[in-house]
Amino acid sequence: VLFLQGGATSQFGMIPMNLLGQKTQADYINTGIWSKKAIAEAKRYAQVNVVASTEAENFTRVPRADELNLSAEAAYLHYTSNETIGGLEFDYIPDAGQTPLVVDMSSDILSQPVEVSRFGLIYAGAQKNIGPAGLTVVIVREDLLGQALPTTPTMYDYKVHADADSMHNTPPTFAWYLAGLVFKWLKAQGGVEGIAEINLRKARKLYAAIDASDFYANPIALPNRSIMNVPFTLADTQLESRFLVEAEAAGLLNLQGHRSVGGMRASIYNAVSETAVEALIEFMQHFEKTRA
Ligand code: PMP
User: Fold this and answer.
1) Contact at 8 Å (CB) between 82 and 89?
2) CA distances to 37, 156, 232, 254 from 257, in Å
3) Candidates 36, 108, 128, 202; catalytic one
């Protein structure tokens, strides 16, 4: 387990640099904005095979296991378990056979239990469920270390960090410290199992409220709805700015969807309480009643 810097974005480059080895190709699944960023960066180092994409369906679902067109020559298979902006989450772990599986878990790590042994590498920027930005967690299988491309900067070589217990240079000490406090807090919630129960309840309640209304909508296929990021639209887009102003007055902040997709988005990470989600639902119902 490595504690690095540079955010998940640095991993988009570090992964091909460190995992290609003697190979020149890598497989990627495209499920949205973050997959695309990972793909674009990997193309600087590798021949990228996009082995499945749901772009033609506007990323309203993830590809099924039988749609993955894996290549024999790939050094690894990369996917994004939760598309933070699209609100799209995998409901299964892809099977890449002997090929190492690499996952960007930036926005769903620690939200529910995961079989870590299925992966060659898991990475996540800390700033959703772990701690403040500035810390990046990489969990990498030991046999994948030590094959960085010769041009890899020292700071980008996983083995250098593994050998130095993530202290090759001055680490972001305050971010580490705060992450430690968050891990203790998480244990007190019953660990990942405990928080998963709460997260599932939060998400179910919010989606149920959206589905019960003709005024709010979420386009994602039911099994792929994210339990962390819940995007929703209003039947009348003209009411969006009023929704945001009134929500803010009710103490509900940061509900504006990403500028690339519009609409609303409730990011209900581990730190967001069930009470907060209930307050949002209550506000949404009140807004619909008074403004729709
Ligand atoms: N991947 C995903 C899924 C993300 O949500 C984000 C950040 N929102 C990133 C990568 C980029 O992370 P960072 O800002 O830590 O570079």
Assistant:
1) yes
2) 19, 33, 8, 8
3) 128
Give per-residue pLDDT as tens, 257-285.
988 888 999 999 999 999 999 999 999 99
Would the CB of 84 count as within 6 Å of ligand 1?
Answer: yes
Ligand 1, closest atom to CA 7?
A: 15
- Tell which residue, 147, 141, 201, 183, has the closest CA to residue 19: 147
Q: Are 19 and 76 in contact (CB under 8 A)?
A: yes
Q: What is the pLDDT of residues 207-243, one digit of tens each?
A: 999 999 999 999 999 999 999 999 999 999 999 999 9
Helix (H, G, I), strand (E, B) or coil at 63: coil
- Torsion sign (Cα): 276, 191, 227, 48: positive
Residue 123 near residue 108, CB atoms below 8 Å: no
